[in-house]
Specification:
Radius of gyration: 33 Å
Shape: rod-shaped
Number of strands: 0
Strand content: under 5%
Largest sheet: none
Number of helices: 2
Distance between the termini: 113 Å
Order of helices and strands: HH
Length: 90
């Protein structure tokens, strides 16, 4: 009976210590995502970084494009309004 109790206590301690170490290992992995031993993971992380930089540049270009397009639309609308005022005034 004592042998069974000792085995159960040892197993409980073993599993508890293993479970206790899990969150610490996961926290370490989250702390340094840029350093990974696997080449494929490193390659995919580099690709993701390049895509992110590209998307930022595209977003900036779209912002400039939309601003210029809006300015052109305002000029066109003013010209159309002037044309309408000239035609309706006759």
């Amino acid at each position: 009976m004592n042998r069974l109790k000792a085995t159960l206590v040892a197993a409980t301690v073993l599993f508890a210590s293993h479970a206790w170490a899990q969150p610490a290992a996961q926290a370490d992995q989250g702390a340094a995502p840029s350093k990974h031993n696997d080449e494929i993971v490193q390659m995919r992380m580099e690709i993701a970084a390049a895509n992110k930089k590209y998307n930022q540049k595209v977003a900036a270009a779209r912002k400039v494009y939309n601003h210029k397009k809006s300015e052109a639309a305002k000029e066109r609308d003013a010209a159309v309004a002037a044309a309408h005022n000239g035609v309706s005034g006759q």
